[in-house]
Each structure stands twice: as C-alpha cells, then as structure tokens.
Amino acid sequence: MALTGALALSLVSGCAQGGAAGSGANTVTYWLWDANQQPAYQACAKGFEKENPGLKVRITQMGWADYWTKLTASFIAGTEPDVFTDHIQKFGQFADLKVLEPLDDLDIDDSAYQAGLAANWTGQDGHRYGAPKDWDTVALFYNMKMVKEAGLTAEELNTLAWNPKDGGTFEKTIAHLTVDKNGKRGDEPGFDKNNVKVYGLATGGAGDGDGQTTWSPFTGSAGWHYTDKARWGTEYQYDSETFQSVTDWYFGLAKKGYLAPFTDYTDGANPANAQVASGKAATSFDGAWMISTYYGTKGLDVGTAPTPTGPTGKRATMMNGLADSVTKNARNKEGAKKWVKYLASDECQKTVGSYGIVFPATPDGTRAAVAAYEKKGIDVSAFTEPVTDRKHSTTFSFPVTDYAADVYALMRPAMQDVFANGAPVSGLTRTNDQINFLLGQ
C-alpha cells in the first residue's frame, strides 16, 4: 500500500489524536505479525516488566497482510501503537512521512549485531529509526525422499553451481528431479514438459521487485545490485544486461517444465512450502522464517542446502533484518524507548533465540537459536554459513530507497508479465525508467 497523497495529508491531522486506543500511562503497546514469535516476546515482556516495575507491555499480533493495513490506518486515525515490528521494505516510506521517532538516544552500537543489520535503519537525515531485532537468509529446501529416489546426495545439493548460459549443475539437478506423468525425468528423452507430475523447483511467484525467495540468489551471485548505492540509492538497475539475462534464464526454467508455472502459486493458499508438502515440487527456495513450517510438516522429510554458487564464484542470499520502531505519536514514548532498548538487548535476544523460531540480531542470540534448532534435530547451517563464511558467500539487503511502495506497484505487474505471459525481459528497461523518473523528482 502506498502511503502517499491523501494519506500523507491525513497523517498530519491524525497525529494529533494520540496513541493506541486503550493504552495507559504505564502501558507500552507493541504490535507484531508473526504468531510463532509471540510467545518468545511475551517472555521478554515478563523480563522487561520485572526490570521496570510499574510498566506493562501489551502485545497485539495479527497476520502479515492485516498488519500493514491496520498499521497504516492507525497512523491516519492517531491510534498507532507505541512500538511496532518494522520491515525494511516499509521503512523508507515511514521515514519520509515522519511517523517514526528517532532512536539516537538509545546509543545502539552497530558492532553489537550481525554485520549490516543496524546500519540499514539509519535514515537519509542521519537519524536511527529502528533497533535491530532479527535476521534471515534464504536456502534451498528439498524433499529428502525425492532426492534419494533420484539418486542424488546431500553433498551434491550442497555444492550446486549455476550460470545463465546452460544453468550449470543447478539446472541439471532441477531437471533430474522433475518427473512427468509418464515417469520420465526432465533430463531423459521423451520428457513431456506439458504434463509434469513433480516439478524440480516450486514457484514463489514472479518475485516482484526484490525476488527474495525466487530469482535474487541468482542475480546476487551474478554480481548485480538493485540500486547504485547500498542504501538510499537514487537509481534502480533493472535495465542491467546482467539482471535481464539472469531473470530470463530463471523464468525460462518454467518454459522447460522444471520450475512450477506462475499459476501454481498463490501467497495464501499455495505458497512454495505447500507445493513441496503436497509432493508437487521437489525443492523450493525459502527463508529462514519458514524453517519450523517445513520441518513441522507431517510426513515430509526435509533437508536444506545453501544457494548455488554463481558466476562471481560465490553463493548469494538476501539477508533481511527486522527492527523495532517507536511511533512519533507514541502515547508512552519514554516507556516505548525503554522497551525497544530491552528488545535489542542480548538478554531479550537470547530469550527469543532459545525458542528456535528466528535468528536474533546479536551473535549470542543467534547462537542460542542455533542451539535450540539443534535440540530439535534441525541443521540450520545452510542459513548461517552465508553470515559466517564470507569467503564463499555474499549477502545483500532489500533495496532501501524512497518511493518503495511505488517501486513495488510498478515492478509487481511487470515481473508477473514476464513470468506469466512470456513478456520479453527487455521491457523491464521501460519500467526501470519509470521508477528512476520517480526517484529523480
């Protein structure tokens, strides 16, 4: 949703109304969207309340889509929470509309968190607007039974490589894991690409403008960058020959019958993990936030492998990090800042890590999470190695720019047109020009 135009004007009048409904002077209201994480943060709230007698934290959880709709509406109505879980994709828009409270006085030390996480939350004005919360990377989930039946090993999946010319060992593997309705594999003579029973790779849709769990591991390992600068870039680079050749190859996997078609994907009803769970796909790229979902799927024996090595000689994955932000119109601003400082502390992050749901932003919090996953019998090295092994892996962030909602509105249909309708990738140059025109205003 674009927070522009009438909404921006509404925010001016709405901000005078004050704080989340029902919040008291001794209550800090906190919104998050992940139900799996709520128990961990309830535990943090108990620790916080013990350290801050008289202060109470009231946590509200809602689904991803509802979350952003209701948060946007709350800014208009003046009923926003004191603190909310923020996403880097939304940050630029919120900072531009001045609905966030600067957090410079919390003295956040960038070096206390995994590399790059804290710096992402500094606005163009030099002020900090988010305290690091957690991080995630992307890896390849796979059905172990299907991999074994195909005669492949975990070691082979852990060492895949690709290139945009012939797809490398990655494409060969995805082809071999694909099976048509007659039992022919994708790399066998007579394979019927129009009647596929099991796709080698699940689809996560067209990827919009970021391709987090679709094409970004490939564009990243080809050396491409979203914008001209790591943060607050002023020019997008979807017109790049590298970007267009890589995405052309990636979506071409669907034309060959190896990648599930665009029509197989729906965000709510049939995401990539559901395609793997149903046996419709053998593998899928997905984020660390989905680990518990895959491993908790009854009847599915799942493994994970790192993203494949690309033309740069390195693997690549987006490394996203959430943060906690204080609203400009927080009713209990002093309590809100204390709560955010506590959320970003090693104490809370180790508590969150112990639940084995996400990777907290501090190194100790991450270690606690790895240990918790290990207790569950889950190997998460495919997700942690990109952070610890910089020799063989590289990480990159969501693009952080102005007009993020408008970029999304332009890129989403453009990428869908390429994937669903076979539109030429060269058409993305025009879309890129439109985006850069906006940023040049």
TrEMBL record:
InterPro entries: SBP. One of its GO terms (cellular component) is ATP-binding cassette (ABC) transporter complex, substrate-binding subunit-containing. The keyword Signal applies. The keyword Signal applies. Keywords: Signal, Transport. It comes from the Bacteria. Gene3D superfamilies: Periplasmic binding protein-like II. GO terms for biological process: maltodextrin transmembrane transport; maltose transport. GO terms for molecular function: maltose binding. Pfam families: SBP_bac_1 (PF01547). Belongs to the bacterial solute-binding protein 1 family. This is ABC transporter substrate-binding protein.
